[in-house]
Each structure stands twice: as structure tokens, then as C-alpha cells.
Specification:
mainly alpha, 55% helix, globular, 108 residues
């Protein structure tokens, strides 16, 4: 539930970057997101998704081989895309927070 809530919150933060106070989309310009896990990582929605899949795996006791393969795929896929997104933010915005990591706080 905790990871699901953060996943949703990250998407709300991203959506609100383009909306006015009445909820209407007013711009398609990219902006630097902030708040919640965005203060630590560039892609908190990807981190939350990894946590969701690992949480489901934990409920199965991490014994289902098929699910373990899905978890490995999600980990590799989301980490790779987060790193690409992080590089894009850093190349587009010189003022991008230098301490912000791509996907795992304080690590990567």
C-alpha cells in the first residue's frame, strides 16, 4: 500500500507540473518535479513500481520462479529507464539538483 501510494503521488506531482489551479492543462513545457520522493530521486514512480513488484513477491515467499523473473525484469527495466531520464534532466537543466539520484536514494 505504501509503495502504491507513492507511485500515485509521483504521477500526481508530474501531472500537476502542467496544470493550473483549476486542473486545466496550461503548458506542455517540461519542468523539474519536486516534493515527496522527487527530492531524492529523479524517478520515484519507477522506484515505487519496483517496490510494488517486490512486495508482491514477498507475499509469495520469493519462491515462485516465474515471479522472480518478472521482478528481475522490472528491476532492470525501471533502473535503466530511470538512468536515461536522470541523464536527460541533467543535460536539459543546469540547475537540476546535484544530490538527486536516478532511482535509489543516496545510491544510484
Amino acid at each position: 500500500m505504501w509503495a502504491s501510494w507513492h507511485h500515485h503521488k509521483a504521477h500526481v506531482i508530474l501531472a500537476n507540473l502542467r496544470k493550473d489551479s483549476k486542473g486545466r492543462v496550461t503548458t506542455l513545457i517540461h519542468r523539474i518535479p519536486s516534493g515527496d520522493w522527487f527530492d531524492l530521486v529523479s524517478c520515484p514512480h519507477y522506484l515505487a513500481e519496483i517496490l510494488l513488484y517486490f512486495g508482491i513477491g514477498m507475499t509469495q515467499g520469493l519462491t515462485h520462479v516465474g515471479w522472480l523473473l518478472v521482478m528481475v525484469f522490472v528491476l532492470i527495466n525501471q533502473t535503466g529507464i530511470a538512468m536515461q531520464t536522470h541523464r536527460w534532466y541533467n543535460s536539459k537543466y543546469h540547475e537540476y539538483p546535484k544530490t538527486r539520484k536516478a532511482i535509489f536514494p543516496y545510491i544510484l
